TrEMBL record:
It comes from Panicum hallii var. hallii. This is PGG domain-containing protein. Its main location: membrane. Residues 537-648 form the PGG domain. The keyword Membrane applies. ANK repeats lie at residues 175-207, 435-456.
Length: 742
């Protein structure tokens, strides 16, 4: 008999009848059964998963303290507390004079229908439940008694409450404070002593005084915060090992030093058993971290107490040692300072970096950076280098030495020490950081003239080292120069490249066209710099036009209100200036005219510079002209003022007139202050770089060139001499001094 093909046999097989079932899982066991059914290959059961969110467990909330009990505890009313807890009548010898219950107290009880009824209280039914009640801060009745008084009535209240529930003595509120914490914080020393006596009777003294609140502070910390020296002594008498707790975190000694309670710190050390106590502080610090911040005296004591000197090497969470802290303090360079003491105790800690790779010498490089002129002494770095010369070359994670840090922090004092130190530090001056920058690179980049001059004036500083970008200091100086709108006489971005160029500094190996492209990209010359120029031009012209306008107004008025007045109309040359016959008068007229002309031109140039009708290049040209003519108008105005005063004052007060003429050029000197000061400040650095003869020749050219720029003043006096040849000038002037003044 021939068998059918397998496919046909399968097709003719009678189908199986599947029974539909439904199961609902309501608990963990049902869920496991559903999982097993779903994993079976021949399962015919439809699995439906339904979740049910159970209501969260209700948080247990302690019962609220009855207001009457709270009031009685805060006021130390033993009678009321005794009545609430014992159900007894008010006793004689306390606050009441009668043996009957106070009607006022009964009225207070009746005002709280949800509280204990008077009859219930009499039977003592609610005594235990009353003491379980707490305030909104979690304080029990014993907390309130301990924090609000220490008289006999409060002591008796504490005894009464403690007798009813001894566990309340160590009960903590929501901040973790026990009644002992509360009493110490309130300064109730007698109450603290009494609570300790109660704990002694319960044989829990050590557990109680060492109990920590949520801030990890014992009652000893609270006493130290209050500066309660007597209470600190009492606590240490009760537990001589108390200063060892907590073993981690802020120790009592650290807190006492931080709060500058040196007497308490001394007591902690002397009263502790075998002088053993905790030196720990928060965030990995120890007591020496706090001591160096509080002065050399407490630092000296702490180093004396710490025999093995392990505090000097302790590191906090940032990796900082106490020497890191001390090195950053003002006065760290003084003999006997906290910095000197810690360094002398363990010199090797100088080589310990923090988590950022900064050693104490890097931190010391920042001291006094904000006001270096007030710190004429040698910085603390000198102490480090004198004992550990190799420490001068210590680098941080960025490869910076202390000199790099000093330059970045603008610490002129440290840079001066590095450049002019008696101890050779030439090997440090040219050290490069991870980006290849020397201290000179950073000084040029920052544009600090004072620091740049110090480094530039040291011949051992190499001017031509390149960084990782292939840039020398002169390249960086060129990049720093703005395309326009800078003062050629004062701006550091002008003087730094000028000095480097004079000294013969070279640029890096870069094509000039590539340099120009990078320069234009950096300053946005091809993108948005034109908009910046317009904005700068607008702001500058608005304020710069004020000065020339004022000068033009003053000089115009002075031209028609001449010094000395005018001759009478009936006399010879009537209506003419009275002082026309003097040399000073002619000079005054010419200088006043020049001041008026220059200020008027400066005003017009400022107007054109602010005009939107002109293109940007023409506006910038007008702006430059306005500056030049404004400077000349200021000089002419100062000269006119001096000559005018001399004209009217010299006949009667010649010496005073001379003094005024000498003082008047101060305006001109201030006008060129930046120019002359910068040349004067760069004299010594250039002398060190180029020698005496070359520097003298350069400065001679500078002086002569500047004098030539004001040579027009010579023409004023030449014309004044020529103008006196007029017949009116030869006439005898009525303004000549009378015989009595001759």
């Amino acid at each position: 008999m021939e068998l059918p093909p397998p496919c046909l046999a399968t097709a003719t097989k009678a189908p199986e009848v599947a029974a539909a079932k439904m199961m609902v899982a309501t608990n963990r066991g049902d869920c496991q059964r559903l999982k097993e059914l779903a994993n079976k290959e021949d399962a015919t059961t439809m699995v439906v998963v339904m979740s049910r969110k159970e209501a969260p467990a209700k948080k247990h909330t302690p019962a609220s303290m009855h207001p009457v009990l709270a009031e009685a505890a805060c006021t130390g009313n033993w009678e009321e507390i005794n009545f609430l807890l014992e159900g007894e009548d008010l006793q004689e010898g306390h606050s009441s004079k009668s043996n009957t219950r106070s009607q006022k107290f009964l009225d207070k009880l009746a005002a709280y229908p949800s509280g204990p009824a008077a009859t219930d209280v009499e039977e003592g039914i609610n005594a235990v439940s009353l003491l379980k009640g707490v305030t909104v801060e979690g304080d029990t009745a014993l907390h309130l008694v301990a924090a609000n008084g220490e008289g006999n009535n409060f002591v008796e209240c504490a005894d009464l409450i403690h007798g009813k529930d001894k566990s309340l003595l160590s009960r903590q509120n929501y901040k973790g404070d026990t009644p002992l914490h509360c009493a110490a914080r309130a300064g109730m020393s007698q109450m603290v002593s009494h609570l300790i006596d109660l704990a002694t009777g319960d044989n829990i003294v050590e557990d109680l005084v060492r109990q920590e609140n949520n801030s990890n502070e014992t009652v000893l910390h609270v006493a130290i915060r209050n500066g309660a020296h007597g209470l600190v002594q009492d606590l240490l008498t009760a537990d001589p090992k108390l200063a060892c707790f907590p073993q981690q975190g802020t120790s009592p000694l650290y807190l006492a030093i931080l709060l500058e309670h040196e007497t308490i710190a001394q007591t902690l050390y002397e009263k502790s058993e075998n002088n053993v106590l905790s030196y720990s502080g928060p965030n990995g610090q120890n007591a020496l971290h706090a001591a160096v911040l509080r002065g050399p005296e407490i630092t000296r004591k702490l180093l004396k107490w710490n025999k093995n000197k392990d505090l000097t090497t302790g590191r906090d969470a940032n990796g900082s040692t106490p020497l890191h802290f001390a090195a950053g303090l003002r006065g760290a360079e003084n003999e006997g300072s906290a910095c000197a003491q810690v360094f002398d105790a363990t010199t090797s800690v100088l080589y310990q970096p923090d988590n950022d790779g900064l050693s104490p010498i890097h931190v010391a490089a920042t001291v006094g950076a904000a006001s270096a002129t007030f710190f004429p002494k040698v910085p603390a770095i000198a102490q480090f280098v004198s004992k550990c010369p190799s420490s001068a070359g210590l680098r941080d994670a960025k490869g910076r030495t202390f000199l790099h840090v000093a330059v970045e922090k603008k610490n002129v004092r440290v840079v001066r020490y590095a450049c002019h130190s008696d101890r050779p530090l030439a090997w440090v001056l040219n050290m490069q950081d991870n980006q290849g920058n020397t201290a000179l690179h950073l000084a040029v980049k920052d544009g600090n003239l004072a620091i740049f001059r110090l480094l530039f004036g040291n011949r051992q500083v190499n001017l031509n080292l390149t960084n990782e970008d292939g840039q020398t200091p002169v390249d960086i100086a060129r990049y720093n120069m703005r395309p326009s709108f800078y003062d050629r006489t004062a701006d550091p971005e002008v003087w730094i490249p000028r000095a480097l160029k004079i000294a013969g500094a070279r640029g890096g190996a870069t094509r000039w066209d590539h340099f120009r492209e990078n320069y234009e990209d950096r300053h946005g010359v091809k993108t948005n710099y034109a908009e910046k120029e317009l904005e700068m031009l607008k702001d500058s012209t608005q304020f710069q036009s004020i000065g020339p306008v004022l000068i033009a107004t003053v000089t115009f008025g002075a031209m028609f209100a001449l010094p000395g007045g005018y001759r009478a109309d009936g006399s010879d040359y009537g209506g003419t200036p009275t002082l026309a016959g003097t040399f000073a008068f002619h000079a005054f007229m010419v200088t006043n005219t020049l001041a008026f002309i220059c200020s008027t031109i400066a005003t017009l140039a400022s107007m054109y510079a602010g005009s939107a009708r002109l293109n940007l290049e023409r506006r910038k040209d007008h702006f430059d002209f306005s500056i030049a003519f404004m400077h000349n108008s200021i000089m002419a105005l100062a000269a006119a003022f001096a000559l005018g005063v001399y004209t009217v004052l010299s006949p009667v007060a010649h010496k005073t007139a001379i003094v005024i003429c000498v003082m008047s050029p101060l305006v001109v000197l201030y006008n060129f202050k930046d120019f002359w000061l910068n040349w004067a400040r760069f004299a010594m650095p250039l002398l060190a770089r180029r020698g005496a003869i070359w520097t003298l020749w350069l400065y001679t050219q500078v002086v002569l060139g500047n004098m030539f720029s004001v040579s027009w003043l010579i023409l004023v006096f030449v014309w004044a001499s020529y103008g006196r040849d007029h017949p009116i000038s030869k006439a005898v002037s009525p303004a000549q001094a009378p015989a009595t003044f001759a």
